[in-house]
Amino acid sequence: MVVRLAKELHRRNIACEVATLAPAGPIAGMLAEAGVPVHSLGSKSPRGIWGLARLLYRGRYDVVNAYGFTASMAARVIIRTLKLPTAVVCGVQGLHVTEVENMDAAKSRFVAWLEKATSPLVDSYDCNSPGALNFLAALGIDRDKLAYVPMGIDPADWSIAEPLSQAAPTILSLARFVPRKRHMDLVDALHLLHQEGIPFNAILAGDGPTREAAKARAERLGLTGSVVFPGALSPAEAKNAMGRASLFCLPSTWEGTPTVVLEAMASGVPVVGTDVNGTSDLVIHGETGLLVPPKRPDALARALSFLVKDPAAAKRQARAARALVASDYTVEVMVDEKLKLYDAVLSRA
Fold first, then answer.
1. For 149-170, what is each residue's pLDDT tens digit?
2. For residues 341 and 142, what is the distance between their CA atoms, to the nearest angstrom?
3. Pairing assessment for the beta strands 18-20 and 124-127 based on DSSP bridges
4. Angle, helices 235-243/259-266, rounded to nearest 10 degrees
5. 2-152+330-348 and 155-328 share one CATH topology?
6. Which end of the chain is less packed: N or C, by CB atoms within 10 Å?
7. What is the number of other CB atoms lying within 10 angstroms of the CB of residue 219?
8. What is the 3-state secondary structure (H, E, C) of 115-167?
9. pLDDT digit string (tens) for 217-233?
């Protein structure tokens, strides 16, 4: 998302630089190739924070759009302490500025308290889902500071999928293996399809702490020949997998705006997702995909079975989904909304 934003701002002749509290990686190379200056500050240690302070002081930027808990907190404190003429925009890519699995855990409650306490230092929160906006409002953060900016992709990057075999549809899931992604639910749903006698191939791609447990469960349920766990895929490999998929499934308990669902929709791959924040903003049940309650493998299985047995409905939903992405979730729409937000915070400042 940052690469798309920075490259489009650069294309529009708007000066944009990117800083990261981490060593340089592939994203830094992509930005450099596009002519966007990148400052890799090395780490989240005091040395990295000091490097960020020096960068902000020397740069005298009009707007700093910070993502992630550490960067967001550091940026707001540095800018206000040094009294810099800079507007602070806090980017929210999930329900909150930090990645947490359980929103009721002690860490989550502490972060929520700290966010509310330091929110006067922020000019605006840039939320990529209405659910995130409502969550922050419920914490007591001023609604006038909350803005919804939709995620954007380039539909031209995603060609219409060409499934390998309609006789044995390929069900794809691309997600990190963490508890809230609920891969176990998808494995159980696939087991129900197997019991129903529906032939399929399933690819559960991604890596993380719950991968081995999901893989072991698939083996115990006799799905070894039908379900594969290839691990993390490169962007090129992920795009290739999407281009060969018949169905896409994301069974999370919550999301921000899941880019992978946008990519499936842009590829014309029918989507089955859970009726949770983020996913439900993109998938209109029965129109651009199917939604089921979270933590319900039986409901997942019924939705997948329906699309397998009714390819006409699947194609109709896929066409509508691709049209929605092309109209409402492009890079151009995202950047237009970002610039409106930046103009608004600067005028208020």
1. 999 999 988 888 877 556 789 9
2. 16
3. unpaired
4. 50
5. yes
6. C
7. 12
8. HHHHHHHCCEEEECCHHHHHHHHHHCCCHHHEEECCCCECHHHCCCCCCCCCC
9. 999 999 998 999 999 99
Closest to 193 (Cα-Cα) out of 231, 221, 213: 221
| Matching residue, tokens 């590829």 | 267
**Residue 59 burial by Cβ neighbours in a 10 Å radius (0-12, 13-18, 19+):** middle
Residue 95 CB coordination number (10 Å): 25
Helices within 250-310 (DSSP H only): 259-266, 279-282, 297-309
Predicted TM-score of the model (pTM): 0.88
| Tens digits of residue pLDDT in 97-138 | 666 656 677 777 888 889 999 999 999 999 998 888 988 998
The answer to whether the beta carbons of residues 256 and 92 sit under 8 Å apart is yes
CA distance 183 to 176: 9
Residue 92 has a CB neighbour count (10 Å cut-off) of 25
Which CATH architecture does the domain made up of 2-152+330-348 adopt?
Answer: 3-Layer(aba) Sandwich (3.40)
CA distance 83 to 74: 14
CATH homologous superfamily, domain 155-328: Glycogen Phosphorylase B; (3.40.50.2000)
**Strand, coil or helix: what is 42?**
coil
- Name 160's Cβ contacts closer than 8 Å, sequence gap at least 6: 267, 268, 322
What are the residue boundaries of the structural domains of the chain, listed by start?
2-152+330-348, 155-328
